[in-house]
């Protein structure tokens, strides 16, 4: 795009809009446009951008500090987590003490355990910021938290009869801010701490002495407990509850909750302009039902409240699941899990009707929809657990490793669904997110329920036969049974002998089966195809077995036979049957050279 073809900033002032890519390629024009906007308007534009552009737009604001400080702490924290601390130094230099306190309340604790190494890493990061005054946040800290931080990072002594033992300081760097107290650093990188202590000595020597005395005399355990209680008070106000409260999201839905009016913005933390964090809905895929309903929501206030509800729900998920609130991947997964469960609940409640979905979003708390979605997964887990308890020993002999993993994932506390990655890559696992996921899982369980009945009643298999493997077979060489191979072997015996058995075939019989089951193509190099009549005959024979066939059973049998045909054509369709077949390179038939 040529510069001369770009409208001037003056031309755009009336609309105050600009293409997002201008932030990087025409920053001066964007800067001129921003100069015409209020702090509120600038902040709103920052919130509406992807994270990678949020920092860039902040930098272009002449009053960037003021704009940064009116943004929700949650939004700034999310920006820093996604960009990384090193790429967020400028943003960190502009945040308020209250915003910084929120970051530390998440970063410095894991559950109820203080993490001094993390605290030190943050002090080092702040020391790299452009504005050294950033360390002023320390003056606003709770006294216990200041003491706890210092106790974890330094030892303090002074020359008197009670505190001059100087035990355990060998090899530690020494520093005295006033000639009275001797400070020994427990950490290698002492520069940020030294700067902090000097800042305190300059600003408030009385406070410094009070803190150093507390470091000497306050019992560590009691100090940490008090600091933690203050931390809980602050985090609960930001929608991060204690464990017992957080676990409530996994309880059964109380019908009375459906009668509660949805929360207004007054229910949530609010700043000067009552902004809500924008990042939660980035996890609501537009292709999902919730995403479609949200796109057409006609109330901006309700949309803001929903964003806050999602923040609080994701926090509850992390606390209830005992996850690290500071880990970026964990935070993203927790939000996606919350949004996914809500999507299932909303889709179920609205019966897939978008108009009804809009109405429900105006009437029901997100946590209630979350619980409805979770109830579906509880039912799946219960169903899968019963199935494995009743059939695990039997199916262990012929279930594929992939299906075994999938079944195992369904009996976890939070059932997981497999998502295929790149070819040859291991399965990827995620939380179910849609009703289609729930239907897919149920279909998977129903299919295996059918497989068990089919194996027992139509193929005549039992645990003893499967364990003994009819005395053994030579191919497949890995000695692993699977239902597809068992069914294909039964197909071969039916085609050759009109019998219903999965007993391994002699090599000669296997070759005879391939000769009769394939239709020869017109061209020599053309892959051969299976004779449909042979498959139909086998299907009719199976349907004659005493299994009380349902319509669903018949459909699942057809699916299984389609897989058998596809595998036969893939493994054997291009082989020259007039020559010796290298059976060890094939899959799909149980074959023995001789009787075992």
Would you kindly provide a written description of the structure presented here, covering whatever features stand out?
It contains 27 helices and 11 strands. The longest helix has 30 residues. The chain has 596 residues and is mainly alpha-helical. The radius of gyration is 33 Å and the shape is elongated. It has 5 domains: 95 residues, no CATH class; 107 residues, no CATH class; 129 residues, no CATH class; 61 residues, no CATH class; 130 residues, no CATH class.
In summary, what is this structure?
With 596 residues, the chain is mostly helical.
Oligomeric state as shown:
single chain
Structural domain count: 5
* SS element count, helices: 27
Distance between the termini: 77 Å
Features:
3-stranded antiparallel sheet, mainly alpha, 5 domains, 27 helices
Topology summary:
Elements: H1 9-12, H2 22-25, H3 27-34, H4 39-47, H5 51-60, H6 64-69, H7 73-83, H8 89-92, H9 97-107, E1 109-110, E2 113-114, H10 116-127, H11 143-153, E3 154-158, E4 173-175, E5 181-185, H12 191-203, H13 205-217, H14 220-237, H15 243-246, H16 289-295, H17 300-320, H18 328-350, H19 354-363, H20 366-395, H21 401-410, E6 417-419, E7 428-430, H22 435-458, H23 463-468, H24 483-497, E8 505-506, H25 507-517, E9 518-519, E10 529-530, H26 532-543, H27 551-572, E11 591-592
Parallel strand pairs: 8-11
Antiparallel strand pairs: 1-2, 3-5, 4-5, 6-7, 9-10
Helix pairs in contact: 4-5, 5-7, 7-9, 11-13, 11-14, 12-13, 16-19, 17-18, 18-19, 18-20, 20-22, 24-25, 24-27
């Amino acid at each position: 795009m040529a510069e001369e073809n770009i409208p001037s900033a003056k031309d755009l002032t009336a609309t105050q809009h600009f293409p997002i890519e201008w932030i990087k390629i025409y920053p001066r024009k964007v800067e001129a446009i921003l100069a015409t906007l209020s702090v509120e308007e600038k902040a709103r534009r920052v919130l509406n951008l992807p994270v990678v552009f949020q920092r860039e737009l902040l930098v272009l604001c002449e009053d960037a500090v003021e704009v940064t400080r009116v943004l929700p702490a949650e939004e700034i924290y999310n920006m820093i987590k996604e960009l990384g601390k090193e790429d967020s130094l400028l943003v960190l230099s502009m945040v308020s003490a209250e915003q910084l306190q929120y970051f530390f309340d998440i970063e410095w604790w894991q559950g109820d355990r203080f993490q001094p190494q993390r605290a030190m890493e943050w002090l080092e990061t702040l020391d790299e910021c452009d504005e050294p005054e950033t360390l002023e946040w320390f003056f606003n800290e709770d006294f216990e938290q200041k003491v706890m931080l210092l106790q974890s990072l330094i030892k303090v002594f002074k020359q008197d009869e009670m505190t001059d033992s100087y035990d355990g300081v060998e090899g530690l760097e020494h520093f005295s801010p006033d000639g009275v107290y001797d400070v020994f650093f427990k950490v290698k990188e002492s520069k940020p701490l030294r700067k902090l202590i000097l800042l305190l000595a300059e600003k408030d020597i009385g406070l410094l002495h009070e803190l150093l005395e507390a470091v000497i005399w306050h019992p560590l355990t009691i100090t940490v407990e008090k600091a933690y209680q203050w931390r809980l008070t602050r985090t609960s106000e930001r929608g991060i509850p204690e464990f017992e409260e957080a676990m409530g999201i996994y309880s059964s839905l109380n019908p009375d909750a459906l009668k509660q009016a949805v929360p207004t913005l007054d229910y949530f933390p609010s700043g000067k302009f009552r902004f809500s964090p924008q990042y939660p809905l980035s996890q609501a895929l537009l292709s999902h039902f919730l995403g479609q309903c949200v796109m057409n929501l006609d109330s901006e206030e309700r949309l803001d409240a929903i964003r806050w509800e999602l923040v609080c729900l994701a926090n509850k998920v992390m606390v209830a699941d005992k996850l690290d609130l500071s880990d970026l991947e964990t935070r993203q997964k927790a939000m996606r899990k919350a949004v996914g469960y809500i999507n299932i609940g909303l889709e179920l409640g609205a019966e897939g009707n978008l108009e009804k979905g809009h109405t429900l979003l105006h009437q029901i708390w997100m946590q209630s929809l979350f619980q409805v979605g979770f109830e579906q997964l509880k039912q799946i887990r219960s169903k899968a657990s019963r199935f494995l308890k009743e059939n695990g020993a039997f199916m262990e002999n012929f279930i594929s490793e992939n299906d075994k993993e999938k079944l195992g994932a369904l009996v976890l506390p939070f059932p997981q669904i497999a998502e295929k990655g790149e070819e040859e890559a291991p399965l990827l696992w995620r939380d179910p997110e849609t009703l289609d996921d729930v239907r897919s899982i149920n279909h998977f369980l129903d299919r295996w329920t059918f497989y068990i009945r089919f194996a027992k009643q139509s193929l005549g298999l039992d645990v003893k036969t499967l364990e003994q493997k009819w005395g053994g077979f030579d191919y497949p060489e890995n000695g692993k049974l699977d239902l597809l191979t068992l069914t294909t072997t039964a197909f071969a015996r039916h085609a050759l002998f009109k019998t219903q058995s999965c007993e391994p075939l002699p090599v000669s019989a296997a070759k005879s089966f391939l000769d009769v089951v394939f239709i020869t193509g017109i061209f020599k190099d053309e892959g051969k195809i299976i004779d449909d009549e042979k498959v139909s005959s086998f299907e009719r024979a199976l349907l004659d077995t005493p299994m009380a066939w349902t319509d669903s059973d018949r459909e699942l049998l057809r699916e299984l036979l389609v897989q058998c045909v596809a595998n036969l054509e893939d493994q054997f369709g291009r082989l020259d049957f007039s020559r010796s077949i290298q059976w060890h390179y094939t899959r799909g038939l149980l074959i023995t050279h001789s009787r075992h």
